[in-house]
Amino acid sequence: xxxxxxxxxxxxxxxxxxxxxxxxxxxxxxxxxxxxxxxxxxxxxxxxxxxxxxxxxxxxxxxxxxxxxxxxxxxxxxxxxxxxxxxxxxxxxxxxxxxxxxxxxxxxxxxxxxxxxxxxxxxxxxxxxxxxxxxxxxxxxxxxxxxxxxxxxxxxxxxxxxxxxxxxxxxxxxxxxxxxxxxxxxxxx
Length: 189
Fold this sequence. Notes:
With 189 residues, this protein is of the alpha+beta class.
């Protein structure tokens, strides 16, 4: 009986130590991830699919460009602000870093400090006078020479086409992102 009690105390002590370390020690995995220009950040709002969700494009190691919603214009924010506001985020990255970097430069050129109002429209190549979060990402890559396409069923099988409305979840869908040259490289949960 005494041996069982001693073993229980040891196990309880180890669990307490592990718990305390998990609270007080920084998460090295999260701290060591390096964002790259062109990375696409996509939220996961409670797993709801469709237009619900949010996306932005990383423009440098610490900042991204996005549009918050109705009544807002495109804006640069710190990635740390994003991750504080959106607890679950996925990061998609193009396989060619030069393509991502070019898209980040296009995001800066076409959206930073621009008075383009928020509104969901059905022509992603036209950002005047409206845009929305996932359109900013799509448009930036389109201007960089990459047209992000989605699959559509047809009588002849699957056809890849330009979407009318860009959905944030299309960027984190591994099948669609893989076709377009992206992979999911990181997630924050």
